[in-house]
User: What shape does this take?
Amino acid sequence: MSALILIELNGSEVNASSRAAITAALQLSDSIDALVLTNNLSNSESVSKLAGINSVKMIVDDSLENVNVEVASKLIADVMSGYKYLISGSSTYSKNILPRVGALLDVQPISDVCEIKSNNTFVRPLYAGNIMATVESSDETIIMTVRATAFEHSGDGGSVEVEVLSSTIPESNSTFISLQESQSERPELTTAARIVSGGRGLGSKENFALIEQLADKLDAAVGASRAAVDAGFISNDYQVGQTGKVVAPQLYLAVGISGAIQHLAGMKDSQVIVVINNDPDAPMSRMADLVWQTDLFGALKELNEYQV
Amino acid sequence: MKIIIPIKRVLDPYTQARINKQTEQVDLANAKMAMNPFCEIAVEEALTLKESGAATETIAVSIGTDKTVDTLRTALAMGVDRAIFIRTESELDLQPLHVGKILANIIKREEAELIIMGKQAVDNDNNQTGQILSGLLDYSLGTFISKFDLSSDASSVEVSREIDSGIETRKLNLPAIVTVDLRLNEPRYASLPNIMKARSKPLETIELDSLGIDTSPRIKVISVVESGTKDRASKQISSAEELFSELNQMGVL
Assistant: This one.
């Protein structure tokens, strides 16, 4: 019952959600291989150090720098024979690719697994996480993505063999043009211990800088509600919620966020929730451990000036 | 160029999902239903293309029991030219792989070159159907798009994709499937005259059974539980000093 993990790289480093996928796989199988699609053989270094895996399989080609889903899904489907499981972290990378692999292998994939009950039974969220469903797969092969917030992130400690596969890169009907990457020195949103998140209440992009300033003070990541992203205060990759990123930090500080159910879905598992808002009836406040009901600009000024 | 827009009828996204104690399933019998919000965005994009002269025809497709017709009429009222209703006798637990196979059948029959659909339905949150459909048809695929530009000769489309690390731009040769994200456009409302007009627009009904597609569940739902947000103690604070002191005590700074 062996498992193949599709590894996602950030530069040359293994993405945290891929580490969660290894932890999940260890509950299902004791024979786990990692698969990496990359343009650079030296990226094998970080992958071969992963604890818990038996081997690394790599497909290396210049065209895999910004991997194309049509190509990736064929390459992965071709190496799946002999594997019971294909597992990856829930991210836009794997959500793009894995269902297409499912189509090629005639498998119904399972999205956002939060808990493993048995070798074919899993718990996953429906309705923005307001319902948790226990589902049983009857497919021969099981393809799934797992929530990075629901499983520990497996560490390093191994040193395994790297096999470069001699796959033929298939033709494709789409081409990469550009990647506009968000540059930030701050912690990554989905793995940060602390998050300062801003909403529509901030009123403008200029005012949103106050959130960033507070995040820097707390060594926190920046998050945002959909309303703040829609209004153009900050770019899409900071959105927390049902259709954005799901987070579960030790501290989630929400400023000027009323708390639509879609937003709460993305952060309700945070350990400590602090809400700063002037609206006492905002749904967000009921979720909070600490509530500071006040003018949020006054509060942000006071917090940013406070000598810790 | 024909555009097909697959749409889904879901629990109204502003309604809290509840489990019916008798049936032990999510209660949809008496709930307010609506078109999946991502599908509305897909419809809007198709209509914009039709209005610009780039598309010749827009066709909405949906699968379900007779109530699904309401959702298709909504798409027609927004401005879609015609609708295809894949009718099921009873409520079936159709999964993305089934839906993909059904849609692939219709797309081949219609010889449609562009499929615009939502990136996910807000009920099951699978985020799979467009990807699966693209694999079944071997069409090029652009998921999570926030920008869409058709080339002047309508042979390709340039899309911007909202991904975890930022915005990726790709060129997709047609035939292609795109799945739309929230920020692609603002969907229009149907005007009253258009709602009236929609009643006489063509709506073709196809019995699911007649397509000969195996829809036996691949995934069985064993049980569901409510897991909504839990209210917390909500201690009131009133200064930065108090906040930092509380957070220090909780050990989260």
Q: What stands out?
A: The first helix of chain B runs from residue 37 to 51. Residues 19 and 25 of chain B are 5 Å apart (CA to CA). The longest strand of chain B covers residues 140-150.
